[in-house]
Amino acid sequence: MTTRATAQPATPRIPADRLHAYIEAIWEKAGSTPREAALVADHLVAANLTGHDSHGVGMTPRYVASLADGELKLNLHAEVVKDAGAVLSVEGGKGFGQVVAFEAMEQGIERAKRLGICAVGLRGSHHIGRIGHWAEQCARAGLVSFHFVNVAGDPLVAPFGGVDRRIGTNPFCAAYPRPGKPPLVLDFATSTVAYGKTRVAYNQHREVPPGSLIDHEGMPTRDPKVMHEAPFGSLTPFGGHKGFGLAAMCEIFAGALSGGFTTHATTLGTTNAIINCSFMHKYVRNGQLEFLAYQ
C-alpha cells in the first residue's frame, strides 16, 4: 500500500462576495452574458460555502481549458427536443451546466406542478456541478426529486474486483422538501470519493480515506497522485458491487435513456471535458410522505 506525506499548506480565505465577483469577471471577460456569468459564480461559490471545495471555484481552470478546446459553449440555453407532456428531453449542447441544468429544472418544476409528475432527460451538458444544488432547487419549489447522472469522457472508476477504469463517478441524488426547514438531501458520487475530492487532497498534500483508490496494479492506496500523475490508478465504487451496480444504472438512465453520451466506445468522447447527462424525476409531495418525513 502506498502513502503520501501529509504536510498541508495553508488554505487561503477569500470573502465570498469578492470570490463571486472574481468568477463573474472571468466569464464575462471570456464572453458570457452577465446572467450566465452570475449563474456560474452562484453555483461554484455556493459549493464552496457548503463545504464541497471539490465542486467549487477550483473547477474554473478546467472550465477555461474546456472553453479553449471547444468543449464548452458560452451563452447556450436548454433546448427541449421532445415534449411528451410529463416527459421532457432536453439538449444541453455543451453549454454551461450551471445554466442549462437550471433552465431544465425550471421547466420540469413547472410541468410537475401542473401534471403532478415530470421526468426530465438532460443530455450533452457541460459539467452540472454539485447535483444537490439542483435537488435543492426542486425542494424550494415543494417537489420531491430523484437525480441520476453520468459522467461521459475518460472513465475513472474500476468495477468491483477489477483494476482498469470502466465507468464515470456517476452521482445519484434525492431530495425531500420540509416546510420551514432545510430539505433532506442525499447527494453522492457512486465512487467511494468524488474525483474532485482527490484533486483537493492532491493539492493539499493529504491522503484520501482508506478504500478510495487503487493504483495501476490494482493495489489499495491512499495517495491521490494516482489520479493525477502517470501511471494512473482508479477510483473504487462505494459499497463494492452495490455501488458499481448503481453507477451502471446511472449510466443507463442518464446517458443512454436521455440519448446522450456514455462511456461506451460508440459515444465516448476523446476530450478531458466533463460532459454530464442526467435523468430526473420530480413529484409533487403528498400528505402521507409529509407525515413520514417528520417522524
Automatic annotation (TrEMBL):
Keyword presence, Oxidoreductase: yes
Superkingdom: Bacteria
GO MF assignments: oxidoreductase activity
Keyword Magnesium listed: no
Keyword annotations: Oxidoreductase
Pfam families noted in UniProt: Ldh_2
Residues making up the signal peptide according to the UniProt record: none
Family listed: Belongs to the LDH2/MDH2 oxidoreductase family.
Name the record gives this protein: Uncharacterized oxidoreductase
Organism whose genome encodes this protein: Paraburkholderia fungorum
Origin organism lineage: Bacteria, Pseudomonadati, Pseudomonadota, Betaproteobacteria, Burkholderiales
